[in-house]
Amino acid sequence: MKPIHLLGAIPFLGILGGIFIANRVTPYVLGMPFNLFWLVMWVVLISATMAVIYRLDPANREERSS
Question: Which among 61, 56, 59 has a CA at the least distance from the CA of 3?
Answer without folding.
Answer: 56
